[in-house]
Design brief:
This protein is an alpha+beta fold and 408 residues long. The chain is built from 12 helices and 17 strands.
Length: 408
Protein backbone atom coordinates (compact mmCIF):
# COMPACT_ATOMS: atom_id res chain seq x y z
CA UNK A 1 0.00 0.00 0.00
CA UNK A 2 1.05 3.62 -0.47
CA UNK A 3 0.07 6.91 1.15
CA UNK A 4 -2.80 8.99 -0.14
CA UNK A 5 -0.33 11.79 -0.86
CA UNK A 6 1.73 9.54 -3.12
CA UNK A 7 -1.40 8.15 -4.77
CA UNK A 8 -2.47 11.68 -5.68
CA UNK A 9 1.02 12.44 -6.95
CA UNK A 10 1.18 9.53 -9.40
CA UNK A 11 -2.40 9.82 -10.69
CA UNK A 12 -3.21 13.54 -11.12
CA UNK A 13 -2.30 14.86 -14.57
CA UNK A 14 -3.21 18.57 -14.71
CA UNK A 15 -0.77 21.06 -16.30
CA UNK A 16 0.94 21.79 -12.96
CA UNK A 17 1.22 18.23 -11.63
CA UNK A 18 4.35 16.00 -11.56
CA UNK A 19 2.72 13.09 -13.42
CA UNK A 20 1.18 15.50 -15.92
CA UNK A 21 4.64 16.95 -16.57
CA UNK A 22 5.96 13.48 -17.39
CA UNK A 23 3.13 12.62 -19.79
CA UNK A 24 3.58 15.96 -21.57
CA UNK A 25 7.19 15.07 -22.44
CA UNK A 26 5.95 12.36 -24.83
CA UNK A 27 3.75 12.21 -27.92
CA UNK A 28 0.20 11.23 -26.95
CA UNK A 29 -2.58 10.01 -29.29
CA UNK A 30 -5.21 12.73 -29.30
CA UNK A 31 -7.73 11.47 -31.89
CA UNK A 32 -8.27 8.95 -34.66
CA UNK A 33 -7.85 10.02 -38.26
CA UNK A 34 -11.40 8.72 -38.77
CA UNK A 35 -12.65 11.54 -36.51
CA UNK A 36 -11.59 14.16 -39.04
CA UNK A 37 -14.58 13.05 -41.12
CA UNK A 38 -16.97 14.39 -38.44
CA UNK A 39 -16.35 18.08 -39.14
CA UNK A 40 -13.86 20.84 -39.86
CA UNK A 41 -13.13 21.33 -36.16
CA UNK A 42 -12.84 18.27 -33.94
CA UNK A 43 -12.97 18.70 -30.15
CA UNK A 44 -10.21 16.96 -28.21
CA UNK A 45 -10.09 16.70 -24.43
CA UNK A 46 -6.58 15.73 -23.42
CA UNK A 47 -4.55 15.91 -20.20
CA UNK A 48 -7.08 18.16 -18.53
CA UNK A 49 -7.18 20.66 -21.40
CA UNK A 50 -10.07 21.51 -23.75
CA UNK A 51 -8.63 21.54 -27.26
CA UNK A 52 -9.66 21.19 -30.90
CA UNK A 53 -8.08 19.86 -34.07
CA UNK A 54 -8.29 22.46 -36.82
CA UNK A 55 -6.61 23.09 -40.15
CA UNK A 56 -4.70 26.28 -40.84
CA UNK A 57 -4.95 28.30 -44.04
CA UNK A 58 -2.56 25.88 -45.75
CA UNK A 59 -4.50 22.81 -44.67
CA UNK A 60 -2.05 21.64 -42.00
CA UNK A 61 -3.48 20.20 -38.78
CA UNK A 62 -3.03 22.02 -35.49
CA UNK A 63 -4.20 21.30 -31.96
CA UNK A 64 -5.47 24.55 -30.46
CA UNK A 65 -7.22 25.67 -27.29
CA UNK A 66 -10.98 26.04 -27.53
CA UNK A 67 -13.53 27.76 -25.35
CA UNK A 68 -15.43 25.08 -23.46
CA UNK A 69 -18.96 25.34 -22.11
CA UNK A 70 -19.21 25.59 -18.33
CA UNK A 71 -21.24 22.37 -18.07
CA UNK A 72 -19.30 20.43 -20.70
CA UNK A 73 -18.64 16.75 -19.97
CA UNK A 74 -15.08 15.48 -20.28
CA UNK A 75 -15.95 13.33 -23.29
CA UNK A 76 -16.27 14.36 -26.89
CA UNK A 77 -19.35 15.96 -28.37
CA UNK A 78 -19.99 16.07 -32.13
CA UNK A 79 -17.49 17.97 -34.20
CA UNK A 80 -18.70 21.24 -35.61
CA UNK A 81 -17.53 24.29 -37.56
CA UNK A 82 -18.99 26.35 -34.71
CA UNK A 83 -16.40 25.28 -32.12
CA UNK A 84 -14.99 28.50 -30.70
CA UNK A 85 -11.21 28.77 -30.68
CA UNK A 86 -9.35 30.65 -27.95
CA UNK A 87 -6.78 32.77 -29.82
CA UNK A 88 -4.76 33.35 -26.66
CA UNK A 89 -4.48 29.69 -25.65
CA UNK A 90 -1.54 27.40 -26.41
CA UNK A 91 -1.20 25.57 -29.71
CA UNK A 92 0.42 22.16 -29.95
CA UNK A 93 2.15 20.28 -32.79
CA UNK A 94 0.54 17.12 -34.16
CA UNK A 95 1.65 14.23 -36.35
CA UNK A 96 -0.39 11.52 -38.05
CA UNK A 97 0.92 8.02 -37.47
CA UNK A 98 -0.76 4.67 -38.23
CA UNK A 99 -4.32 6.04 -38.32
CA UNK A 100 -3.96 8.11 -35.14
CA UNK A 101 -3.23 11.80 -34.58
CA UNK A 102 -0.50 12.30 -31.98
CA UNK A 103 0.03 15.56 -30.12
CA UNK A 104 2.91 16.93 -28.06
CA UNK A 105 1.78 19.08 -25.13
CA UNK A 106 5.22 19.57 -23.57
CA UNK A 107 7.75 22.37 -23.74
CA UNK A 108 10.76 22.49 -26.01
CA UNK A 109 11.42 20.32 -29.04
CA UNK A 110 9.25 17.19 -29.21
CA UNK A 111 11.11 13.87 -28.97
CA UNK A 112 11.48 11.63 -31.99
CA UNK A 113 9.07 8.81 -32.66
CA UNK A 114 10.71 5.42 -32.06
CA UNK A 115 10.92 3.09 -35.04
CA UNK A 116 8.52 0.66 -33.41
CA UNK A 117 6.62 -1.86 -35.53
CA UNK A 118 3.35 0.05 -35.21
CA UNK A 119 4.97 3.18 -36.68
CA UNK A 120 7.00 1.63 -39.50
CA UNK A 121 4.46 -0.88 -40.83
CA UNK A 122 2.65 0.32 -43.97
CA UNK A 123 -0.87 1.68 -43.70
CA UNK A 124 -2.22 -1.58 -45.11
CA UNK A 125 -0.93 -3.47 -42.07
CA UNK A 126 -2.12 -1.22 -39.22
CA UNK A 127 -5.52 -0.33 -37.80
CA UNK A 128 -6.29 2.20 -35.05
CA UNK A 129 -9.25 2.39 -32.68
CA UNK A 130 -10.03 3.81 -29.25
CA UNK A 131 -12.43 3.44 -26.34
CA UNK A 132 -13.50 5.49 -23.34
CA UNK A 133 -13.04 4.31 -19.75
CA UNK A 134 -14.46 6.17 -16.77
CA UNK A 135 -11.41 5.90 -14.54
CA UNK A 136 -7.94 7.29 -13.99
CA UNK A 137 -5.29 6.55 -16.61
CA UNK A 138 -2.90 4.78 -14.21
CA UNK A 139 -5.23 1.94 -13.21
CA UNK A 140 -6.05 1.50 -16.91
CA UNK A 141 -2.35 1.11 -17.65
CA UNK A 142 -1.60 -1.15 -14.71
CA UNK A 143 -4.04 -3.85 -15.73
CA UNK A 144 -2.17 -4.05 -19.04
CA UNK A 145 1.14 -4.82 -17.33
CA UNK A 146 -0.29 -7.55 -15.11
CA UNK A 147 0.27 -10.86 -16.98
CA UNK A 148 -1.55 -12.94 -14.38
CA UNK A 149 -4.94 -11.26 -14.74
CA UNK A 150 -5.64 -12.86 -18.13
CA UNK A 151 -5.99 -16.32 -16.58
CA UNK A 152 -8.81 -15.11 -14.37
CA UNK A 153 -10.49 -12.02 -15.78
CA UNK A 154 -10.43 -13.36 -19.36
CA UNK A 155 -11.14 -16.98 -18.48
CA UNK A 156 -13.27 -18.76 -21.08
CA UNK A 157 -14.84 -22.02 -19.96
CA UNK A 158 -15.21 -23.28 -23.53
CA UNK A 159 -12.63 -23.25 -26.34
CA UNK A 160 -14.01 -22.14 -29.69
CA UNK A 161 -12.31 -22.51 -33.07
CA UNK A 162 -9.27 -20.20 -33.16
CA UNK A 163 -9.69 -19.89 -36.93
CA UNK A 164 -12.84 -17.88 -36.25
CA UNK A 165 -11.06 -15.51 -33.89
CA UNK A 166 -9.59 -12.96 -36.31
CA UNK A 167 -9.29 -9.59 -34.66
CA UNK A 168 -9.98 -11.00 -31.18
CA UNK A 169 -7.37 -11.37 -28.47
CA UNK A 170 -6.70 -14.77 -26.82
CA UNK A 171 -8.55 -16.55 -29.64
CA UNK A 172 -5.40 -17.92 -31.27
CA UNK A 173 -3.42 -21.09 -30.71
CA UNK A 174 -0.50 -20.86 -28.30
CA UNK A 175 2.77 -20.64 -30.17
CA UNK A 176 2.81 -23.08 -33.08
CA UNK A 177 0.87 -25.79 -31.23
CA UNK A 178 -2.74 -26.88 -31.32
CA UNK A 179 -3.38 -25.64 -27.78
CA UNK A 180 -5.95 -22.83 -27.77
CA UNK A 181 -4.78 -19.79 -25.81
CA UNK A 182 -8.03 -19.91 -23.84
CA UNK A 183 -7.19 -23.41 -22.56
CA UNK A 184 -3.58 -22.57 -21.76
CA UNK A 185 -4.49 -19.48 -19.75
CA UNK A 186 -7.17 -21.46 -17.92
CA UNK A 187 -4.97 -24.46 -17.13
CA UNK A 188 -1.91 -22.50 -16.00
CA UNK A 189 -3.17 -19.50 -14.05
CA UNK A 190 -0.02 -18.75 -11.97
CA UNK A 191 2.84 -17.70 -14.26
CA UNK A 192 6.36 -16.95 -13.15
CA UNK A 193 6.93 -13.31 -14.07
CA UNK A 194 10.25 -11.73 -14.97
CA UNK A 195 10.69 -7.99 -15.54
CA UNK A 196 13.66 -6.39 -17.31
CA UNK A 197 14.27 -2.67 -17.66
CA UNK A 198 14.86 -1.51 -21.24
CA UNK A 199 15.58 1.71 -23.12
CA UNK A 200 11.83 2.11 -23.75
CA UNK A 201 10.41 0.93 -20.42
CA UNK A 202 9.90 -2.66 -19.27
CA UNK A 203 10.02 -6.09 -20.90
CA UNK A 204 7.63 -8.41 -19.06
CA UNK A 205 7.96 -12.19 -19.50
CA UNK A 206 5.29 -14.55 -18.16
CA UNK A 207 6.31 -18.22 -17.98
CA UNK A 208 3.62 -20.89 -17.70
CA UNK A 209 5.36 -24.20 -17.05
CA UNK A 210 3.53 -27.22 -18.46
CA UNK A 211 3.57 -30.83 -17.21
CA UNK A 212 5.24 -32.15 -20.36
CA UNK A 213 8.49 -30.25 -19.77
CA UNK A 214 7.63 -27.33 -21.99
CA UNK A 215 6.98 -23.71 -21.10
CA UNK A 216 4.64 -21.18 -22.61
CA UNK A 217 6.47 -17.86 -22.94
CA UNK A 218 4.43 -14.68 -23.27
CA UNK A 219 6.41 -11.47 -23.75
CA UNK A 220 4.68 -8.13 -23.27
CA UNK A 221 6.03 -4.62 -22.81
CA UNK A 222 5.45 -1.38 -20.98
CA UNK A 223 6.41 1.55 -23.22
CA UNK A 224 7.05 4.55 -21.01
CA UNK A 225 5.14 6.47 -19.90
CA UNK A 226 1.60 5.21 -20.67
CA UNK A 227 1.62 2.52 -23.36
CA UNK A 228 1.88 -1.25 -23.63
CA UNK A 229 2.77 -3.58 -26.50
CA UNK A 230 1.33 -7.09 -26.28
CA UNK A 231 0.70 -10.02 -28.64
CA UNK A 232 -2.82 -10.33 -29.95
CA UNK A 233 -2.13 -13.45 -32.01
CA UNK A 234 0.72 -15.03 -33.93
CA UNK A 235 0.00 -12.58 -36.73
CA UNK A 236 -0.73 -9.37 -34.87
CA UNK A 237 0.41 -7.19 -31.98
CA UNK A 238 -1.37 -4.47 -30.05
CA UNK A 239 0.28 -1.19 -29.06
CA UNK A 240 -2.04 0.63 -26.67
CA UNK A 241 -1.79 4.03 -24.97
CA UNK A 242 -3.85 4.96 -21.88
CA UNK A 243 -4.35 8.67 -22.35
CA UNK A 244 -5.92 10.88 -19.68
CA UNK A 245 -8.88 13.03 -20.64
CA UNK A 246 -8.77 14.38 -17.09
CA UNK A 247 -8.00 12.89 -13.68
CA UNK A 248 -11.05 10.59 -13.74
CA UNK A 249 -11.49 9.64 -17.39
CA UNK A 250 -9.21 8.20 -20.06
CA UNK A 251 -9.15 6.80 -23.57
CA UNK A 252 -7.29 3.71 -24.64
CA UNK A 253 -5.86 4.16 -28.13
CA UNK A 254 -4.80 0.95 -29.86
CA UNK A 255 -2.77 0.39 -33.01
CA UNK A 256 -3.10 -3.18 -34.28
CA UNK A 257 -0.04 -4.22 -36.33
CA UNK A 258 0.00 -7.23 -38.66
CA UNK A 259 3.21 -9.09 -39.53
CA UNK A 260 1.47 -11.22 -42.11
CA UNK A 261 -1.45 -10.21 -44.29
CA UNK A 262 -2.91 -6.70 -44.62
CA UNK A 263 -5.33 -5.86 -41.83
CA UNK A 264 -9.00 -6.39 -42.61
CA UNK A 265 -9.90 -2.89 -41.42
CA UNK A 266 -13.55 -3.17 -42.32
CA UNK A 267 -14.01 -6.28 -40.16
CA UNK A 268 -11.91 -4.87 -37.31
CA UNK A 269 -13.92 -1.65 -37.27
CA UNK A 270 -17.27 -3.49 -37.48
CA UNK A 271 -16.29 -5.75 -34.56
CA UNK A 272 -15.46 -2.79 -32.36
CA UNK A 273 -18.36 -0.58 -33.36
CA UNK A 274 -20.67 -3.33 -32.16
CA UNK A 275 -19.33 -2.55 -28.69
CA UNK A 276 -18.91 1.26 -28.92
CA UNK A 277 -20.99 4.26 -29.89
CA UNK A 278 -19.99 7.29 -31.92
CA UNK A 279 -18.87 10.05 -31.76
CA UNK A 280 -17.31 9.64 -28.31
CA UNK A 281 -16.33 5.94 -28.63
CA UNK A 282 -17.94 5.17 -25.29
CA UNK A 283 -18.58 1.44 -24.67
CA UNK A 284 -22.17 0.28 -24.94
CA UNK A 285 -21.62 -1.98 -21.93
CA UNK A 286 -20.88 0.15 -18.89
CA UNK A 287 -21.56 0.69 -15.18
CA UNK A 288 -24.99 2.13 -15.97
CA UNK A 289 -26.25 -1.18 -17.40
CA UNK A 290 -24.11 -3.52 -15.25
CA UNK A 291 -21.89 -4.26 -18.27
CA UNK A 292 -24.69 -6.57 -19.52
CA UNK A 293 -23.84 -9.06 -16.79
CA UNK A 294 -25.51 -12.44 -17.36
CA UNK A 295 -25.31 -15.00 -14.52
CA UNK A 296 -26.17 -17.86 -16.87
CA UNK A 297 -23.22 -16.96 -19.07
CA UNK A 298 -20.99 -16.71 -16.00
CA UNK A 299 -21.96 -20.23 -14.97
CA UNK A 300 -21.23 -21.79 -18.33
CA UNK A 301 -19.02 -19.65 -20.56
CA UNK A 302 -16.99 -16.77 -19.08
CA UNK A 303 -15.52 -15.78 -15.73
CA UNK A 304 -17.21 -12.37 -15.73
CA UNK A 305 -20.52 -13.16 -17.43
CA UNK A 306 -20.04 -10.00 -19.47
CA UNK A 307 -19.63 -11.30 -22.99
CA UNK A 308 -16.69 -12.36 -25.13
CA UNK A 309 -15.09 -8.92 -25.70
CA UNK A 310 -12.16 -8.82 -23.29
CA UNK A 311 -12.11 -5.00 -23.36
CA UNK A 312 -15.35 -5.11 -21.37
CA UNK A 313 -13.73 -7.39 -18.77
CA UNK A 314 -10.85 -4.94 -18.34
CA UNK A 315 -13.20 -1.98 -18.30
CA UNK A 316 -15.30 -3.50 -15.52
CA UNK A 317 -12.21 -4.31 -13.48
CA UNK A 318 -10.61 -0.86 -13.69
CA UNK A 319 -13.83 1.15 -13.40
CA UNK A 320 -14.87 -1.01 -10.45
CA UNK A 321 -11.92 0.39 -8.50
CA UNK A 322 -13.52 3.83 -8.54
CA UNK A 323 -12.67 6.89 -10.57
CA UNK A 324 -9.24 6.99 -8.90
CA UNK A 325 -8.13 3.75 -7.28
CA UNK A 326 -7.51 3.97 -3.53
CA UNK A 327 -4.04 2.46 -3.37
CA UNK A 328 -3.79 3.04 0.38
CA UNK A 329 -5.75 -0.21 0.77
CA UNK A 330 -3.97 -2.37 -1.80
CA UNK A 331 -1.63 -5.28 -1.03
CA UNK A 332 0.67 -6.04 -3.95
CA UNK A 333 2.08 -9.56 -4.34
CA UNK A 334 4.59 -11.48 -6.44
CA UNK A 335 2.48 -11.26 -9.59
CA UNK A 336 2.49 -7.44 -9.34
CA UNK A 337 6.22 -7.11 -9.94
CA UNK A 338 5.77 -5.17 -13.20
CA UNK A 339 3.40 -2.71 -11.52
CA UNK A 340 5.92 -2.15 -8.72
CA UNK A 341 8.79 -1.58 -11.15
CA UNK A 342 6.71 0.75 -13.29
CA UNK A 343 5.71 2.95 -10.35
CA UNK A 344 9.38 3.30 -9.44
CA UNK A 345 10.13 4.44 -13.00
CA UNK A 346 7.28 6.94 -12.93
CA UNK A 347 8.36 8.35 -9.57
CA UNK A 348 11.95 8.65 -10.80
CA UNK A 349 10.79 10.52 -13.92
CA UNK A 350 8.66 12.93 -11.88
CA UNK A 351 11.56 13.67 -9.55
CA UNK A 352 13.95 14.12 -12.48
CA UNK A 353 11.77 16.84 -13.99
CA UNK A 354 11.41 18.55 -10.63
CA UNK A 355 15.18 18.36 -10.00
CA UNK A 356 16.12 19.59 -13.45
CA UNK A 357 17.72 16.29 -14.44
CA UNK A 358 15.14 15.45 -17.08
CA UNK A 359 17.89 14.39 -19.50
CA UNK A 360 17.63 11.04 -17.72
CA UNK A 361 14.06 10.45 -18.97
CA UNK A 362 13.58 7.50 -21.29
CA UNK A 363 13.32 8.04 -25.07
CA UNK A 364 14.21 11.74 -25.03
CA UNK A 365 17.44 11.47 -27.03
CA UNK A 366 16.43 12.05 -30.64
CA UNK A 367 18.98 9.81 -32.32
CA UNK A 368 18.72 6.88 -29.92
CA UNK A 369 14.92 7.03 -29.84
CA UNK A 370 14.54 7.12 -33.62
CA UNK A 371 16.72 4.01 -33.88
CA UNK A 372 14.62 1.95 -31.43
CA UNK A 373 12.81 -0.93 -33.13
CA UNK A 374 10.59 -3.79 -32.06
CA UNK A 375 9.74 -4.45 -29.33
CA UNK A 376 9.62 -8.22 -29.06
CA UNK A 377 6.06 -9.16 -28.21
CA UNK A 378 4.82 -12.68 -28.83
CA UNK A 379 3.71 -16.06 -27.55
CA UNK A 380 5.87 -19.17 -27.90
CA UNK A 381 6.06 -22.69 -26.49
CA UNK A 382 9.48 -24.25 -25.96
CA UNK A 383 11.38 -26.76 -23.92
CA UNK A 384 11.68 -25.28 -20.46
CA UNK A 385 15.49 -25.14 -20.53
CA UNK A 386 15.49 -23.21 -23.81
CA UNK A 387 12.56 -20.81 -23.50
CA UNK A 388 14.54 -17.58 -23.86
CA UNK A 389 16.19 -18.50 -27.17
CA UNK A 390 13.00 -20.09 -28.49
CA UNK A 391 11.01 -16.93 -27.80
CA UNK A 392 13.62 -14.81 -29.55
CA UNK A 393 13.76 -17.11 -32.58
CA UNK A 394 9.95 -17.20 -32.86
CA UNK A 395 10.02 -13.41 -33.10
CA UNK A 396 12.82 -13.42 -35.68
CA UNK A 397 11.06 -16.06 -37.81
CA UNK A 398 7.89 -13.96 -37.86
CA UNK A 399 9.85 -10.87 -38.84
CA UNK A 400 11.79 -12.67 -41.57
CA UNK A 401 8.53 -13.70 -43.27
CA UNK A 402 7.00 -10.22 -42.93
CA UNK A 403 6.20 -8.46 -46.26
CA UNK A 404 7.38 -5.10 -44.84
CA UNK A 405 10.75 -4.37 -43.22
CA UNK A 406 10.34 -5.65 -39.66
CA UNK A 407 14.00 -6.43 -39.09
CA UNK A 408 15.56 -5.77 -35.68
Amino acid sequence: MISDQLNQRITRIGPDTPAGAVLRRYWQPAALVDELDHGARVPVNLLGERLALVRDDEGALQLVTRRAAANETPTHYPASDDIEIDPDGPRYPVEIRAGAIFAYLGTGTPPAFPNFDCFRAPDSHVFAFKGLWECNWLQALEIGIDPAHASFLHRFLEDDDPDDGYGKQFRDKAGSTEIPMTKLLRDYPRPDIQVDETDYGLKITALRHMEDGRTHVRVTNQIFPDAICIPMSREMTITQWHVPVDDETCYWFTIFTSFDKPVNKTLMREQRLKEHRLPDYAPLKNRHNDYHYDPAEQAALTYTGMGLDINVHDQWAVEGMGRIQDRTQEHLGRSDVAIIRYRRMLRHAMSAIEDGTDETLLMQDTGDTAAMCGPLSNDAIAQSDDWREASHMADLDRRAACPWDATV
